[in-house]
What does this fold into?
Amino acid sequence: MQKVSQKEQLQIENREQNKNNREAEAKFKEGRTLLRDARTPEQFEEAAQCFSDAISLREDKGIYWAYRGIAFRNIGWFRRASCDFSMAIQLDSGYPQHYAERGICYQKMGRLEEALEDFNEAIYLEPANGHYYYSRAIVYSKMGKYDQAVDDYTKAITALQDPFQALCNRGNCYRRLEKMDLSISDLKKAVTMQQDNVNARNNLGLSYFENKEFDQALLEFNKAIEMDKENPTLYYNRGIVFYHMEENEAALKDFNKAIELDYQDPNYYFNRGNTYLAMENYNKAYSDFDRAIGLAPQNPKFYHSKGLAFQKEEKYNEAIEMFSKALDIAPDHVASRYHLGLMLHKSGHFPQALQAFTKVLDLVGEDRLVYESRGRLYQDMRNHEIAIRDFNKAISIDPHSPDAYIFRGISLLKLGKPENSITDFDKAIELNSESPLIDNGLGCAHKALGNFEDALIHMSTAIDKEPSSVDFLMDRAGLHCDMHHYPSAVEDLTKALELHPEDPQLFYKRGLAYYKNENYEEAIKDFKQSLSFHPFPTYKPDIHYHLGLAYACLEMFEKAIKPFTKCIDLCPNEAVYYHERAKAYQMVDKNAEALEDFGNVIKLQPNNAHAFFRRAFSQKALKFYQEAAEDFSRARTLQPKNPALVINAKKVHGVKCIVLCKPGQEPNFN
It folds into this structure.
């Protein structure tokens, strides 16, 4: 066999390589033709196979790798495509299109920082190419960097022959930046360029909506729907506009159509639920919120809106559960945290409500409404000094909002400063508020100043403005009590109970009115009802106290002992509770117990002459005669001018006790 020389071997290899190159180029051209005409994944795969054949024949051609990457990208195989573009870059690092194509793949895969680097490199290599600015703008937009996106879209609009999509996208970025006039301007230009483009009209409608130009928004959505009657998004967006225009029936019709076309989108049910909520059709609202939650159980907004529905129905525990679920998903969901605070306040969970409002302020910083809400919570906690601090904060944030002046006026009243409160109420009137809270507040201020008739006029005006206000009825009932018009007080509180039949505070207040009118049997019923409905903890001692007093006034002393004991359990340092229980013990001949209670009264009030006087009778009953004499003497020493305390010990030998005053009317010995 003839030996082949090195030169001949090289010639053979060159001929083979040239043949491979020609075949590779032929495959490449075939693939490019297929790619140009491809419409389906199968057609793109066929083109990709041609490029693979070309690569197998010639691996060093970056353009082959790049075109296969384009085919893969059109199929949606972004990872494989990015690898091909990386190989193309390795073979031809100075070609900007390779970086741009890989950047598109990275963007599709969510690898935004890498995409940004590639588009930066492409622009560096070819700074006049508008497509690269357009693609980089998309990345900036996905990163939430809308200002940078706008800059790049602007450069793209200048450089591109057809700037339609860049105008649309820049208009959408302006909407995100809340620059509505610029957004509308861009989108109107885009619509002029392509009047039959549904997406452009839809986005123009959205910008008009965000700019509160609802009629213009409707015009655009109507035109878009005429062009595409099977697009659920268009009906949904138009429904949102109708909802904000309070045209609820029209909104429902559009949401129904959107759901008919696409029953798997949770937002459609969510906003239909919000519409039902606005119409106070709570059952249908709950049903839609549940459908939305079923489709997207990790969306806090859906639980939040269901919570709002419960809130409107005054189902506070259910509302708390929904707001809490929203916060389990998104602990920084400000609206749910705020409304959770409102509901905890309403349900009497004051410490938890305080924690919620304070957390909201930590999240959002200075906020007038939150300071007002926390201030009102402090009011119910009877901490009016701190409440006023919050109202002062609210006023400093917005001195033209009347509400904080009204609430501060109420706290000033509670602190015994009616003149200052009137100044605040007048300021609220100056700021054009017609709130009935002002009339009621002025009524309370005049009541505090002793101007009962003026107070009654103001309070009645408040009730005329808002007949269903339980608070106003309660305040006027309190005024009636001060005027000794107890039947009128009972009438007001009965009306209030018709509105809130399970309100423990109302039963408590009406019980007090019955008590002061000496209708002790009805008072007892109301105090018991109040306790059965779980009143605020701050009210409980006084409810038990007056329940005990009502029994004592009926001379049912044995029954009076239990509520007085509850008072002592709740407030162990209140002398009056020991004093009334001591007297009740004494009246049922439990003198040892009475003696101990009188002793506790005297520890807390060493100058309580009545306690020494009544204790003397228990000492005497227990045959502690010397101690009894000392107690009688001590009582006379403390109140030498009180003739009721001057007795002849021999004449009271068989007397159980001498009653100095009715139950609940002991003087203040503090």
Notes: The radius of gyration is 41 Å. The chain has a mean pLDDT of 95.
